[in-house]
Write a structure and sequence with these properties.
CATH superfamily: Nucleic acid-binding proteins
Order of helices and strands: EHEEEEEEEEEEEEEEEHE
CATH topology: OB fold (Dihydrolipoamide Acetyltransferase, E2P)
Structural class: mainly beta
Radius of gyration: 22 Å
Shape: globular
Number of domains: 1
Low-confidence stretches: none
Helix content: under 10%
């Protein structure tokens, strides 16, 4: 997919850069695989804001995605590629030989009419799904399970992928895009290829209103508040906090490690790269 720019007829179109969706399906989603969504506006059951900066936004339906690919040894045909407002990646509507339909995360390079398979002894081809132990090292994969049978959890967003580095006993060694290297049970299922829409990272919103369409409300800087409202607040003139950057509740905002679960520590070989 290419990027699309606009002539600067207005201030917003001068800076707007969006992904070209001319090759995507123009109609409505497949209705049996959709369901409604409730939007909270960031409020809990008492009506109090528990998640800030959320509210408004366009109404849209949720597309039910098959992250499991449990229909094994039966071919499917790609009917169309669609835009999904709930995720950065595009999705593909596929029809199995028994006429059942499902949505999957669309890998880059998958086209309408392509055949895809899932199971053992399937070809190493974009869109095919198989266990990690059946995939050769060096292959780019996505939608990777962490626990066999639990469905894909890793590398599901636009342009993301994981490199299968090798094997260590019953485990496959994966190199994540964050720089982390970790072990995953080799019986876990993954899909071949890189996730579609890699140009997502180059999109420029262009104006604040487009974020309102997406359900994002404006943020207020902590240094612009009063001391009662934020640790950075108060002071005469343009005082910039006077302490290390923190959240409104005192949590460090500059890379403090908050990871609690220790059960997977033994599976992580190399930690992810530090932010600069």
């Amino acid at each position: 997919m290419a990027l699309k720019t606009f002539k600067p007829y207005t201030k917003s179109t001068r800076g707007t850069v969006v992904a070209d969706k001319s090759n995507l399906w123009k109609g409505s989603p497949y209705k049996p695989l959709t369901r409604g969504q409730n939007f909270t506006g960031g409020r809990n059951n008492y009506g109090r804001i528990t998640s800030r900066h959320i509210g408004g936004g366009s109404k849209h339906k949720f597309r039910v995605i098959d992250f499991f690919r449990k229909k094994r040894n039966i071919s499917a045909t790609v009917d169309r590629i669609e835009y999904d407002p709930n995720r950065t990646a595009y999705i593909a509507l596929i029809t199995y030989e028994d006429k059942e339909k499902s949505y999957i995360i669309c890998p880059q390079g998958l086209k309408q009419g392509d055949k895809i398979d899932s199971g053992k002894n399937v070809e190493i081809k974009i869109g095919n799904s198989l266990e990690l132990k059946d995939i050769p090292p060096g292959t780019s994969i996505h939608n990777v399970e962490l626990i066999p049978g639990n469905g894909g959890k890793l590398a599901r967003s636009a342009g993301s992928s994981i490199t299968l580095s090798g094997y260590d006993g019953d485990y496959a060694i994966l190199k994540l895009s964050s720089g982390e290297t970790r072990k995953v049970n080799s019986s876990c299922v993954a899909t071949i290829g890189v996730v579609s829409n890699p140009d997502q990272k180059n999109i420029k919103i262009g104006k604040a209103g487009r974020n309102r369409w997406r359900g994002k409300r404006p943020q207020t800087r902590g240094v612009a508040m009063n001391p009662v409202d934020h640790p950075h607040g108060g002071g005469e003139g343009k005082t910039s906090g006077g302490r290390s950057p923190v959240s409104p509740w005192g949590q460090s905002a500059k890379g403090l490690k908050t990871r609690r679960p220790k059960r997977s520590d033994k599976l992580i070989i190399t930690r992810r790269r530090k932010r600069k």
